[in-house]
Amino acid sequence: MTEQTASDLVRLSKRMSELGLSSRREADEWIAKGWVKVDGQVVSELGSKVRPDQKIEIDRRAKEQQSERVTIILNKPLGYVSGQAEDGHEPAKVLIQPRNRWADDKTKQRFNPGQLKSLVPAGRLDINSTGLLVLTQDGRVAKQLIGENSTIEKEYIVRVAQTNGAPNSEFPQEKLALLNFGLELDGKPLQKADVSWLNDDQLKFVLREGRNRQIRRMCDLVGLKVLALKRVRVGGVTLGKLPVGKWRYLSDFESFEAKSGLRHRPTGSAHPRNKNNSYHRKPNRSDRNR
After folding, report:
1. CA 270 from centre of chain
2. Quick one: which of 28, 113, 127, 133 could link to 76 by a disulfide (CB 3.0–4.6 Å)?
3. What CA–CA distance (Å, rounded) separates 151 from 114?
């Protein structure tokens, strides 16, 4: 085997993940069970490598197992952490019980305790944030939302106040522009965002990345204090009318893939009552629903 040929080889589990067949963890599980074929031959040795052009087939049992894995949408309340319990605060996962299932959940999925096994958050909300939290057993969903190459948008409604005590109507346009593009965190530039005023008190943030406490730290850098933060959309899935503390299953008709607002909307907008530093109108209903 030549050096060039060897360099073309990739781990089978990685290749399966790249193709969207499974997560790497799932792939290793299926390989060990003999549920994966490469060019028609069963491969059961972990760490096996393949060429990108080789044909990979998945056993029916693996597909059936995968189809049984659930993805859940939760409206996370204040006071819960997204992942493991910490500092005396419970993880949001404890809310996934039959009594908390939204009565208007239209899916036919039945709850069983086995669905709590390996159910993990695909993206986090801190203890002081609320809104749409995705919990999933499906490694493909986790990779789609939080993988290093993920481009799925997350939309937030953020209530803010200026730290200098000035009204939000006097928030400088140049600082709003910085929220959209030009800030750095931990020495690394942030990707372009879409940040605009919804009304006198609230900003809408649309992000394609998820740095630690990103929105709060962005606001700190431009002299804003976050008073409340709520995630209302992840890709094409919205929080909608889901009540706080309630959950529902992701339906077969929903997809996290969505048209990118960052490609179709202008970069930010001035305060609805402060274009060119002058009051000229109050926000109307169409403003609030942009």
Report:
1. 27
2. 133
3. 31
Answer for the pair 200, 159: CB distance below 8 angstroms, yes or no: no
Counting Cβ atoms within 10 Å, is residue 113 exposed (0-12), middle (13-18) or buried (19+)?
A: exposed
36-38 and 56-58 as β-strands: parallel, antiparallel, unpaired? Answer: antiparallel
Q: State the pLDDT at residue 125.
A: 93
pTM above 0.90, yes or no: no
Give residue 158's Cα distance to chain centre.
Answer: 17
Integer angstrom CA distances of residue 6 from 9, 17, 27, 48, 52: 5, 20, 22, 13, 12
Exposure class string for 42-53: b at 16+ Cβ within 10 A, else e: ebeeeeebbeee
pLDDT tens, 135-158? 999 888 888 898 777 889 999 999
With CA atoms as reference, report the closest residue to 274 among 264, 290, 287: 287
Residue given tokens 């963890």 in the structure block: 25
**DSSP result, 134-197:** EEES-HHHHHHHHSTT----EEEEEEEEETTS--GGG--HHHHHHHHTT-EETTEEPPP-EEEE
Of 105, 126, 200, 201, which residue is the catalytic one?
126
